[in-house]
Amino acid sequence: MKDKLQLMQEKIRVLNEANKAYYQEDREIMSNLEYDKLYDELKQLEEETGIVLSNSPTVRVGYELLSNLPKERHENVMLSLDKTKDVSTLKEWLKNKAGVLSWKLDGLTIVMTYEGGKLIKAVTRGNGEIGEVVTNNAKVFTNIPLTIAYKGTLILRGEAVISYSDFYKMNEKIDQVEAKYKNPRNLCSGSVRQLNNKITAERNVKFYAFSVIRADVDFKNSKIEQLKWLKNQGFSVVEYKKVTSDNIEETVKWFEEHIEENDLPSDGLVLTYDDINYGESLGTTAKFPRDSIAFKWRDEVKETKLLDIEWSASRTGLINPIAIFEPVELEGTTVSRASVHNLSIMEELELGIGDLINVYKANMIIPQISDNLTRSNNIEIPKSCPVCGGETLINNDNGIKTLYCTNDECLAKQIKAFTHFVSRDALNIEGLSEATLEKFIAKGLVKEFADIFHIEKHKDVITNMEGFGEKSFNNLVNSVNKARKTTAARFLYSLGIPNIGLSNAKLISKEFKDDWERIQGATYEELIEISGIGHVMATNYVNFFRNEKKKALIEDVLKEIEFESSEQETEQTFENLTFVITGSLSHFKNRDELKAAIEERGGKVTGSVTSKTDYLINNDLLSSSSKNKKAKELGIEIISEDQFVQWMNSGKRIGG
Questions:
Q1: CA distances from 119 to 72, 111, 228 (A)
Q2: What is the CATH number of the domain that holds 546?
Q3: 234 and 349 share a domain?
Q4: CA–centroid distance for 188 within its chain
Q5: Radius of gyration of the chain from its Cα atoms, rounded to whole angstroms
Q6: Can you spell out the DSSP letters for 548-593?
Q7: What's the whole-model pTM score?
Q8: pLDDT of residue 58
């Protein structure tokens, strides 16, 4: 009994960590397959022992929310569904009753409330008891009816989702692999829970109703009639079919055959009794309602051979194992590699080169290893970093082992410096995303900034890399060569000197007439005389150029580039002016975009209001925020975003 109790406690810890990551942080630390396996094992242990611990995920639903959105307690607790992967279980569950079988959409469950025919409230599922109020965001869902014919109180549940096609379109616009969304659910969750519903509107979120909680309507005691009524009110409803024990097997098969053409993310099916009163009479368990059950698809699993483990170093110092295996077809695409995530998972699978492994796609997107049939366990953990050769260290954090590089000078840890060097406002080399630079550095193709200008020497290696071909390689070479002509200000900014932004780089370059020798050799006394350059900036600047290693790296780059005369690209409308930004924005996506517009025109943006502030930008002029109060105390003018945009476009100063 003691051993079983300890085993239960360990499984609960791991499952709760996975739940927290999934529901609270919108990320995944284990596959659905692994989670379900652990969950079933825990449930079996609880049945064997007769013990159910208070923190067990079999009796608790979700986690406490962490966000700035208002919270609200649900009138009826939202329980999760019991599940099965066997059609025979569905048949047995249904018995002689009629049922409704529908897609189990994989998005964010939301409770909508309508009064007098108008949408007045939308609350996320949250932890099942308390959700987040997202009414403003729900109002910009692309298919939501804001007004309906029914004028009584209507409370309904449904799923907010982002389609696969919209998900892929959005990810195509993101160069950095690490910044890409893992799956449509993560993207949807982040979109629905935005504080600015302008962003929600841009994400093309849709809502599909699946049940009525309260409405003074005669649904003829039929779930199907309920769904038809919702459709007549203007709601999109989840696709469904009426089933009995006679046709449920063929109906499940029909859904299975239509998975590929279903553009909405789904992780299975839901079976509900059509007889509403009967379903309600069954009540609930501590965890599940008894009127519905979920059917989860058995993942398409393929057997293949493990060819190698590639060790991938990242900017955090973490070195991840990547499994390379003989290519297999999964869910319509060819797959040949999968992340193993960490050393603990690698050891648990007992991986070895040449082993026969089973692979599948979690949520039909992310390749994972589900099992190792051979288990030769012959992988050697590297004692040195694959990028810099520095010593590695195994960390053990709460039973999860990870491998790290201990060298602070490791190039992989300096990836941000390389990314900044090639960024749009710096040398502007298109096609060199953070993920691509990581690959180049990992393969030893790039060791310093100047190496970027010689990537054409590595054509054979690069064109054989994943995601690269002849065309993309040629485009990259052309972009690199185009970047050979730049301005002194752009190059100065590209070096990543602490506190030296683009506007300051322009000020310094202008002061020294774009003469690089004078720019590089500027003294503290000379810099401090430039308006906008303070003590900290000047000190960082001088110390940077005194560093012999950095000077050598700069000299190497100077051999590759040519300076053009810096004609003023943008009128310096805000020269010598200091702004502070607060509150939400409507014309600009975020504060960084507004800050960039100010700096491009010669202005400066700081984080707090002081006597040196010229303008506070705030759309809520009557706000009681600390920045508004401070600005009023100091007599600093508060302007709206509309006023700022008018000033920026016309060049005419506010009040002048």
A1: 16, 11, 19
A2: 1.10.150.20
A3: no
A4: 10
A5: 29
A6: HHHHHHHHHHHTT-EEPP---SS--TTTT-EEEE-S--SSSSSHHH
A7: 0.48
A8: 76
In terms of domains, do 503 and 380 share one?
no
Between β-strands 130-132 and 71-73, what pairing exists: parallel, antiparallel or unpaired?
Answer: antiparallel
Domain that holds residue 476: 411-483
Cβ pair 225, 233 in contact under 8 A: no
Q: How confident is the model at residue 164 (pLDDT cuts 50, 70, 90)?
A: confident
The whole-chain average pLDDT of the chain stands at: 85
> Is 140 within 8 Å of 162 (Cβ atoms)?
no
pLDDT greater than 90 at residue 360: no
- pLDDT of 270 reads 95
Please compute the mean of the pLDDT values over residues 294-322 and round it to a whole number.
85
End-to-end CA distance of the chain: 82
Cβ(111)–Cβ(105) below 8 Å: no
The Cα–Cα gap between 415 and 256 comes to 44
Total domains, the chain: 6
Cβ atoms of residues 291 and 272 within 8 Å: yes
Q: Is the pLDDT of residue 244 over 90?
A: yes
DSSP 323-340: EEEEEEEETTEEEEEEE-
Distance CA 45, CA 8 (A): 7
What's the token pair of residue 263?
């553009």
Among residues 196, 199, 166, 197, the alpha carbon closest in space to that of 181 is found at 166
Q: Six-digit token pair at 226?
A: 């309920």
Are the beta carbons of 127 and 22 closer than 8 angstroms? no
**604-606, strands of its sheet edge to edge:** 604-606, 578-581, 615-617, 637-639
Q: Which CATH number belongs to the domain containing residue 126 in this structure?
A: 3.30.470.30
Residue the block writes with tokens 């100063």: 653
Beta 604-606 vs 578-581: how paired, if at all? parallel
- Alpha-carbon gap, residue 488 to 274, rounded angstroms: 72
Assigned token pair, 30: 């284990």
Q: Select which of 11, 104, 287, 506 is catalytic.
A: 104
Tracing tokens 């309920």 back to the chain, one arrives at: 226
pLDDT digits (tens, 9 = 90+) for 380-390: 999 999 888 89
354: phi > 0 → left, psi -120 to 50 → alpha, else beta; which?
left
- Residue 104 appears among annotated catalytic residues: yes
Neighbours of 539 (CB within 10 A): 15
* 187, 310: one domain: no
- Are 262 and 383 part of one and the same domain? no
DSSP state of 275: B
Instruction: Quote the strand ranges of 162-301, DSSP E.
Output: 206-214, 236-237, 240-243, 266-273, 292-295
Which pLDDT score is estimated for 362?
Answer: 62
